[in-house]
């Protein structure tokens, strides 16, 4: 990795901002009366405090940051932009209330308290904002419609933080600042008890593609859950911000989706664009959680869209993309727009930008004349060590962190996560009784979901679950499982903190890698169903039709290897992109039953293990002592097998003391020499997933970038995932347009 270079921001460098706290400014349009400044932050994933990160220089080269992000640094950057332009609009999209232990064990309340102090002008939810169920989502984000009571099992988590716990901080949460805190508890006929409601968003949330569905009453079904847009005015310019939330929620855990219907948003856009234009909109911004690939396509397809603010895919556009029809031009950071980019902009092209978690804040300065964008300046501002932490926000974050850090007595406040069906009293569910900064291991190599296919972190996660479950004696007592566990997988999540090489791994890090509450489970599957599910996942990652892409990267594999042809197989009679799969060093047998251990999303039908369907004989792992991750593990049957979701109710399926992936990771780290993850054992270069050219006898391996199609399949080679998929161009359905 190359060392970081000074990041130019208009006439100032990032370093000068950090040292002098002067305003972050843009040189191009600072004195223009029709300059509209958009501030963009997205996919924060419940991250309150700084963490290690791999950052990018403007030229796309990378550097290591031992401490990046965190809400206090974000606040510094945003305050500085507002000092430069008090009329700046703060936009946020995607996955705000999920992604950390603090968020999970409080159902997002720990995140909402500080986020309500940012002054967000418009927010669009992401898929993980639905992760605590419909009641939590509606009480938090909706301004109209039903406000269901918080279910009994969830009240355990919502009771950890209430508005009474918000400290009064001058200039941030005091009365003069305008800060408010609200919990909806009085909704009839079954009110949520005081102190057990969720912290409500005090900023507006918009989504054009989210509707009410059963089990709500028929008169409510089909009606919007959120307003589709928000009208704003800056410097005499009318601005419409249209929201599109993630459409993939129905493909996630079933409990996320109760009472909601999602569309892709493209059917709603023509009517909404016409409506906001009739309301006087001169500038139309769409902020969308569909992901970069789909957002590029939408921006190309609707000429009235001026700015597409993208979220969900965790890419960072160092240079903004200017798109129109089938044209995509990447601008160069710090340089004037090229003639081609200006020409595309004049013809009605849209600006597409995306930021990555709390590690970047986007600033987009638009020069608007006569209702048209004639020029712009974009910067993805790196939020690294050079940015000082805002003292007031630092104090507020510390108040939210207090219960997760050991006190003077060395103890931490107990936190319990109770999934569906778990009701008080009793210590049932996932227990957190350790300081989040507890060191649980070490690594001599970078741990980060940094690649779209094989990844060192995913190798480690998958191996950990395989090792721990295979050492449970009960497994071999099940008929047909006498040889133990055959394979495991780690889901292709994009979120999670980086742990740099030669660093300690903390409990906090483990929970950012698994910031959900799945239970580790096991079942047996045919080889055909395993390979079929993996082909489906590959399609969702690399489909040339961007609307068929789900997002996320490929899964991690344990005791498995695969050869993939992402480019040529779609042209053949093959049913997918997999050329060869081995399990335990042997070619996969479609008819053989394989024992597969991984994770189960609470509320799902008992058919899956880690996105692989068609399983049988599902069982769960449980701890003898829920407070002790190292206590004895036994195998047990599901608590319920059928009728798991009935109306709004979700039955308990996993046992009271279910084994969580974080438990498995800690046990595995304890078993490694010196508790250390090594590149030699888990490095991505082991060849668990190899791309090949299946047109050549012997299926020779190819570099990933060549096989996926870069740079032809991406406008920016620094992207992790090529937004145009992989395979023949004509599979995208695109027709080249001559301008």
Q: Can you tell me about this structure?
A:
This protein has 739 residues and is of the alpha+beta class. The protein has two domains: 8-391, 4-Layer Sandwich (Purple Acid Phosphatase, chain A, domain 2), CATH 3.60.21.10; 452-493 and 516-669 and 682-729, 5'-nucleotidase,  domain 2. Helix content is 19%, strand content 23%. The strands form ten sheets. It has a seven-stranded mixed beta sheet, sandwiched between helices. Helix 4 (109-115) runs antiparallel to helix 10 (391-401). The protein is globular, with a radius of gyration of 25 Å. The two termini are 40 Å apart. 56% of the residues are buried.
Short account of what is shown:
With 739 residues, the protein is α+β, with helices and mostly antiparallel strands. Helices cover 19% and strands 23% of the residues.
Major sheet summary line: 7 strands, mixed
**N-to-C span:** 40 Å
CATH homology group of the largest domain: Metallo-dependent phosphatases
Q: In one word, what is the shape?
A: globular
Given helix and strand content, the structural type is alpha+beta
**Percent of residues in helices:** 10-25%
Mean pLDDT: 90
> Remind me, CATH topology of the largest domain?
Purple Acid Phosphatase, chain A, domain 2
- How many H/I helices? 16
How many strand units?
Answer: 36
Uncertain residue ranges: 1-32
Count up the domains.
Answer: 2
The CATH architecture of the largest domain would be: 4-Layer Sandwich
Give descriptors for this structure:
Purple Acid Phosphatase, chain A, domain 2; 36 strands; globular; alpha+beta; 5'-nucleotidase,  domain 2; 739 residues; single chain; 6-stranded mixed β-sheet; 7-stranded mixed β-sheet; disordered N terminus
